[in-house]
């Protein structure tokens, strides 16, 4: 008996980290081994080189003899060894074993084909979180012991036909024959809803729509685990990760696409076609709101780290010995609001057992009169108080009332009119208003007035009329004139009580409406103090008042607000409960101080700094962007906007008729020579900026011009270079410039064919958009073509001054550059 009879060595073509070696006997899978990536040295020296053992698996024949396979990955190929695992003399039926070994086949299968062979079932992840999950169930042993499933019927009902699902895979070596890389594999559609209940599971059929270019490993994907609202992407089987497919909602799909550069680069094309509601958002480039875009971008410029430090400072801030404000300084568009949002996010996510934080946002520019501004401040804090979760109110009585209301509503469901009355009563809100007004008016008047109203109600409504007469007769007979006087007083008291009841209801059942109140600041201060006492427990809670866009106020009101806030913070009841953070452009603040307090002839940086130090205990300034900041922001903005659908993508909408007829009735949008030129070309412009400011979509040959919405690498590089020369940039200005350039490029592509467009150097086009934002330069460029009637004219740009361009094309560039820069 020779050992060579039970040893096999060979190589096979394979793509590293993209599939498995499958060992089979008579079309039965014995085991599979994942093909890992080779060592770095192998990639550098690929000829006949293989990594040390990177994969190992064992399997049995029909008699229980044990064999193993070792895998050695190389460059686009794999060397493997198969051998008997023990002393060959222990084999009982040697002939049968030899026949078995000779019949073994090995093949490489990529993960796309591999995963489609799997059968999928539903499972519940935990008692707390419901999510549609499909679990691989390939040749499990002791199934009843493995799966702990609850609420299976409800879960299977949640899985509907045509649902889109993300395929998530995990390894579980000890329980299945197949093992594969943990991670996100692709997107599938539910073809058949759960059926055929087997072993506490339901079979489900899926159709694979798309596989990602590479497996997104669990290590990468786990960074975004909160998107699925579960601790781990896949369910647990006795503490180990098992195979799973995870259901996905619209918001989760959008978040995943926007959260990770790795995911976006790999999957954006197919995901845009699967989720058109996301693609539509990306196509609205010209009209996209700046703030909504910023909110979905990954953080940049170390904002998370800076916000974390600033947030920790606020958490530990002790305002007991100071009445100053805390400032966030920076130019308009620098990202002050975004920065504070990250500070707020960190504080809310910090498990601070000692103090609970609440937040209120105040934008004083909405009311440019001082009295109305203070009334608005009171209103915003009042709204924040009324929104406070009842679970944070230290009152067991109101919680019992709410619990009783819920039980009463449940029992009265069959009686609709009663159910509506019970559920319409906002006990939580009314309690908060009552608690506030007890602070304002005191409880004594409420208690005695309520007792009198109750007694009067009993006398009027519950004592029969004849008993009232008998009582009065007895009273008059007993005390005579004194009784008459008493009756008169009682009647007078009753008349007063009617008004008293109304007054009590008004006082304790309403909030002060300061939107119509233009009283003195001191009165507002008093009311703010009472409101905060009802709202905030100074020992356990803190309200952070964020004053946003203060620099949008006129100079007088800006300083008055800061002065007023300092005065308000002199009130100890307010100061112990309120932390004021103000976002402001320090340049505008300095001008406002100079305007109100200082001689305008004095240098701004002398006296103004002293005043700022008086107003603000400390502050953080978001610096001007340096070159690396500009590079980072341009990359982020262009990555978000830079997608390209396949030319044959069926999801690109077709238009039956042009949006604008081929005529010259567009003088209101594009004026002068260019109109005639466009008309003579016979090319209708299909995107124009109308008088109402709307920008219509771009279409070429009745199809969306995707090419015009894509920024090439060289364009991105030129944008970076030119923006660095502009100076005083903010994230908002950078983002605005990129959008302007995209529309500018799209307009040119619409009017000129590709051969003409390709003659324009990308850097020159970027320069034209920059030039259009400077009125003096724009006029200079206009004068250039008006004074030169040659067929071709030189370009008045330093770098391109020796090059000539068709005069008509030059006019088109100027007109469109001006069009996309209306301000």
TrEMBL record:
Keyword 4Fe-4S listed: no
Gene3D superfamilies reported in the protein's UniProt record: P-loop containing nucleotide triphosphate hydrolases
Keyword set, alphabetical order: Membrane, Transmembrane, Transmembrane helix
Membrane-crossing segments per the record: 446-465, 471-488
Domain of life: Bacteria
Domain KAP NTPase: 305-711
Pfam families associated with the record: KAP_NTPase
Cross-referenced PANTHER family: NTPASE KAP FAMILY P-LOOP DOMAIN-CONTAINING PROTEIN 1 (PTHR22674:SF6), NTPASE, KAP FAMILY P-LOOP DOMAIN-CONTAINING 1 (PTHR22674)
Protein name as it appears in the record: KAP family NTPase
Organism, scientific name: Aliarcobacter skirrowii CCUG 10374
């Amino acid at each position: 008996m020779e050992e060579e009879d039970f040893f096999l060595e060979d190589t096979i073509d394979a793509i590293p980290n993209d599939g498995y070696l499958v060992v089979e006997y008579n079309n039965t899978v014995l085991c599979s081994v994942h093909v890992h990536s080779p060592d770095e040295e192998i990639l550098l020296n690929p000829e006949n080189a293989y990594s040390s053992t990177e994969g190992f698996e064992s399997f049995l024949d029909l008699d229980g003899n044990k064999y193993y396979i070792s895998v050695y990955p190389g460059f686009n190929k794999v060397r493997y060894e198969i051998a008997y695992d023990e002393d060959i003399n222990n084999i009982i039926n040697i002939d049968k074993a030899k026949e078995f070994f000779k019949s073994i086949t090995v093949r490489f299968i990529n993960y796309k084909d591999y995963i489609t062979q799997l059968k999928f079932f539903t499972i519940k992840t935990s008692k707390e979180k419901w999510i549609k999950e499909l679990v691989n169930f390939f040749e499990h042993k002791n199934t009843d012991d493995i799966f702990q499933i609850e609420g299976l019927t409800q879960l299977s009902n949640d899985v509907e036909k045509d649902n889109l699902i993300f395929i998530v895979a995990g390894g579980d070596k000890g329980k299945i024959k197949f093992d594969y890389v943990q991670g996100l594999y692709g997107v599938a559609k539910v073809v058949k809803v759960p059926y055929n209940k087997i072993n506490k599971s339901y079979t489900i059929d899926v159709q694979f729509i798309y596989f990602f270019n590479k497996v997104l490993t669990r290590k990468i994907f786990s960074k975004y685990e909160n998107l699925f609202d579960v601790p781990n992407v896949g369910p647990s089987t006795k503490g180990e990760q098992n195979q799973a497919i995870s259901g996905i909602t619209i918001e989760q799909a959008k978040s995943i696409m926007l959260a990770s550069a790795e995911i976006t680069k790999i999957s954006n094309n197919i995901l845009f076609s699967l989720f058109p509601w996301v693609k539509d958002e990306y196509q609205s480039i010209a009209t996209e709101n700046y703030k909504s875009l910023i909110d979905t971008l990954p953080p940049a410029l170390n904002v998370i780290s800076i916000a974390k430090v600033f947030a920790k400072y606020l958490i530990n801030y002790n305002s007991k010995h100071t009445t100053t404000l805390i400032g966030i300084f920076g130019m308009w568009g620098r990202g002050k609001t975004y920065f504070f949002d990250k500070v707020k996010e960190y504080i809310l996510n910090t498990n601070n057992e000692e103090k609970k934080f609440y937040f209120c946002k105040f934008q004083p520019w909405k009311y440019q009169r001082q009295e109305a501004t203070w009334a608005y401040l009171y209103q915003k804090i009042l709204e924040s108080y009324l929104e406070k979760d009842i679970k944070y109110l230290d009152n067991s009585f109101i919680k019992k009332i709410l619990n009783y209301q819920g039980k009463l509503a449940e029992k009265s469901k069959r009686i609709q009119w009663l159910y509506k009355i019970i559920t319409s009563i906002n006990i939580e809100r009314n309690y908060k208003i009552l608690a506030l007004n007890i602070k304002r008016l005191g409880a004594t008047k409420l208690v005695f007035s309520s007792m009198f109203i109750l007694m009067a109600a009993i006398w009027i409504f519950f004592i029969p009329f004849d008993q009232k007469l008998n009582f009065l007769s007895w009273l008059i007979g007993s005390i005579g004139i004194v009784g008459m006087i008493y009756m008169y007083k009682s009647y007078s008291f009753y008349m007063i009580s009617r008004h008293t009841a109304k007054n009590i209801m008004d006082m304790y059942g309403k909030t002060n409406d300061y939107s119509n109140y233009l009283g003195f600041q001191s009165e507002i201060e008093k009311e703010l103090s009472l409101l905060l006492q009802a709202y905030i427990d100074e020992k356990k809670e803190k309200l952070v008042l964020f004053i946003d866009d203060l620099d949008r106020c006129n100079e007088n009101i800006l300083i008055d607000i800061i002065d007023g806030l300092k005065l308000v913070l002199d009130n100890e009841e307010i100061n112990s409960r309120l932390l004021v953070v103000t976002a402001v452009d320090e340049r505008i603040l300095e001008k406002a101080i100079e305007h109100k307090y200082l001689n305008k002839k004095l240098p701004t940086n002398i006296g103004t700094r002293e005043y700022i130090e008086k107003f603000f205990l400390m502050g953080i300034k978001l610096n001007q962007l340096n070159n690396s900041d500009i590079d980072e922001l341009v990359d982020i903005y262009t990555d978000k906007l830079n997608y390209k659908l396949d030319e044959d993508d069926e999801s690109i909408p077709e238009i039956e008729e042009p949006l604008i007829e081929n005529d010259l009735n567009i003088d209101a949008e594009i004026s002068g020579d260019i109109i005639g030129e466009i008309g003579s070309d016979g090319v209708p412009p299909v995107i124009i900026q109308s008088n109402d400011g709307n920008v219509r979509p771009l279409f070429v040959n009745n199809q969306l011009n995707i090419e015009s919405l894509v920024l090439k690498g060289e364009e991105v590089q030129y944008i970076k270079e030119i923006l660095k020369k502009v100076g005083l940039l903010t994230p908002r200005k950078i983002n605005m410039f990129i959008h302007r350039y995209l529309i500018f490029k799209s307009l040119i592509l619409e009017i000129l064919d590709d051969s003409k467009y390709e003659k324009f150097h990308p850097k020159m086009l970027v320069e034209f958009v920059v030039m259009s934002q400077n009125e003096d330069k724009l006029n200079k460029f206009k004068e250039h073509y008006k004074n030169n009637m040659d067929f071709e004219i030189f370009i008045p740009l330093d770098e391109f001054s020796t090059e000539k361009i068709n005069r008509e094309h030059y006019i088109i560039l100027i007109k469109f550059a001006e069009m996309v820069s209306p301000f």
